[in-house]
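name: query_chain
kind: protein
chains: 1
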Amino acid sequence: MKAKKLADFELLMLEKSESLKTNQWVYRLLRTNLLCGKIEPGLPLTIRGLAEALDVSPMPVREALHRLACEGAVEVKNNRRVIVPQMTVEKFNELCALRILLESHAAETASPYITEQHITKLQEIDARIDLAIEQEDSVNISLINQEFHRSLYSANPFQISVPLIESVWLQLGPFSQIAIAKLEKTYIVDRHIEAINALKQRNTFALRRAIEADIRDGIASIRSVEGIPGYFEGNTQTQPGG
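structure:
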């Protein structure tokens, strides 16, 4: 993915295939940038500015922002300004709790459908995460980590929780990336390896425990970043979870 610099931030640009309609492409592009935190909390977005940057008419940008507002990823103000919402301690704690609840359930229900092909794919994705960590590429760490979780949960052909999970990711992404970019170490224990081993052993309890530990490790890393309370709206003293 290439990057394109706007006045206040830089967007990751997605390739646009001929089969993809412009409004779908704009939505996916903005959604990806929110998931990986390229657009920071509190940053105002203008339909005209985005349309000019993406070389499209205002209509697909307006449609994309409306969809993202419905998902809680952006917020439309009274003056029609669109911003990425600021994070509060209470909202952060609630979203983190939802991640644990939804994703441990999604992993458990996907477990019976996991094949050797799924395991191989998850191993390949985890290797790409390791490479992104070596390269200190915080944006791709986030995106590939989400790919790992999405691939695991989507093994269940009857899965309906993934859209709910991605809505939580969208709301956490812009704030979490602030912390991820400041981390000196991303993780000590590779919980993805634990999850893969649990899948190989058909151990649903161990899989659920590994996914929950993976999410809790990420939350603990964010909380450990020096000065992170200052990024919470209306609270500059209390640590998240405190």
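note: The chain has nine helices and five strands.
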